[in-house]
Amino acid sequence: MPDAKSLKPLLLEYQALFGEGTLQSLATDRGYYAHENEMFLQAAGVKEIGLQRPERYLKCSRTSLSLEAQERLYNRRSGIEALISHVKQGGQMRKSRMKTDKTTLSAGYAAILGFNLRQYLHRLQEKAENKAKNPITCFT
Predict the structure, then answer these.
(1) pLDDT by residue (tens digit) across 56-110?
(2) What three-state secondary structure class fits 48?
(3) Residue-wise over 66-76: b if at least 16 C-beta within 10 A, else e?
(4) Cα separations (Å) of 26 from 29, 52, 63, 103, 107?
């Protein structure tokens, strides 16, 4: 499904899982921009909408957010790109070669679990290294 067309079903699923009105802000890249998506998000009660517009739509901004708030949302989305890249590379989340949706879903969960375990092990290793550098001295 193209990105712009997938935003509405994605938001409807989110609302079904977590309830209407729980999503306060949303930031996407340019692929998700469509006027209909912007209107749908406003109607859904999303307060901060960070739909990045392609160059041809930059002058016709329909958002009430300040430029600083828009930039903060865009930067938040950009910061997530590195995590997506790590999950794709380390978790083998490239194009799915699974036969069914259930196996594709399980492969996604496995990739995220692997990513989280790598992050956890990295933090444990950092903690152990910091402890070795700064031993706590006890006076008895």
Answers:
(1) 665 555 556 677 777 777 777 666 777 777 666 665 656 667 778 888 788 778 8
(2) strand
(3) eeeebebbbee
(4) 10, 11, 13, 29, 26
User: What SS3 state is found at 44?
Assistant: coil
Which among 63, 77, 65, 79 has a CA at the least distance from the CA of 27? Answer: 77
Nearest to 7 by CA among 97, 35, 110: 35
Q: Which amino acid is residue 43, in one-letter code?
A: A
The DSSP element (H or E) to which 51 belongs, if any, is strand 48-51
Q: Can you tell me the distance from the alpha carbon of 5 to that of 100, in angstroms, rounded to the nearest whole number?
A: 22
Tens digit of each residue's pLDDT (9 = 90 or more) over 6-56: 999 989 999 999 998 888 888 887 788 888 988 899 899 888 888 877 766
- The alpha-carbon radius of gyration of the chain (Å, integer) is 20
Quote the pTM value: 0.51
